[in-house]
Fold:
Amino acid sequence: MMRAINNKKNVKIFSLIIAVIFILGIGGLAYTQMSTPGATGSSTVGVIDTSRMMSPENPIFIKAANDFMTYRNQVSTDAQAKIDAAPDDATKQQIAEEAQTNIAKRDQEIAKEVQDKAMEAAKAVGESKGLSVIMAKDSVLYGGVDITEQVLKKMAADAQ
Structure:
């Protein structure tokens, strides 16, 4: 063994092997720290209580609900006038079904508009907080940064 250590060529090989093992170890440690979310103690996941997006706390939702109620009342009034003037029951039924279809379609459009605005606000808040993922609160079992209040505030500011 002493002969192997005294030989300069062997010392260089052993030193090189030790250096490679050390570098691989440091690289592996760095990789595991980078790939573990929250390894530094901060979360990169934001969570939003989606039920609060479709509630009276959200001014955009209130405006959308009022717009929908106005639309529904107008369609119902127009449909009733057409039904009263219709000559037979089949025509009356068709008018009522068309009115229901139009109301349902408008309801979906308004819900999509509110959802899109909530997503835009969530994205803006998430980017400002350095979050990489935003999820619905009910799908996260543990952890995450709750940004519901900030999203509601952003939506209120955008509604003005």
In short: The helical segments are 2-6, 8-35, 59-85, 89-129, 148-159. The beta strands are 45-48, 133-136, 145-146. The chain has five helices and three strands. The two ends are 82 Å apart (CA to CA).
